[in-house]
User: Fold this.
Amino acid sequence: MESYAVGFARPDRWSHTGQGSARTPWHAVSALRPAGELDGEVELALCGAIVQIWGCQQWDRIGAGRTGCPECRRLSGLAWEVATLSRAG
Ligand SMILES: [Zn+2]
Assistant:
């Protein structure tokens, strides 16, 4: 399974309309290196957002929460897992 780092949408990139990423600031970044090594780097998220890597976070946990980007969740395949979990629970 592919691994993903967690990126936080940079506040200076948020739109001023109050829509979009401000509510779901956490994005998935395809990680070619361990997330710890990418910590602090600015990368492109799966959905195309500019994010800063938070190496200490885990996408499968963050992405399943309400503040995870739905588009990144879908693109990373996490949506399927979340749906399965919610059905089971
Ligand atoms: Zn995203």
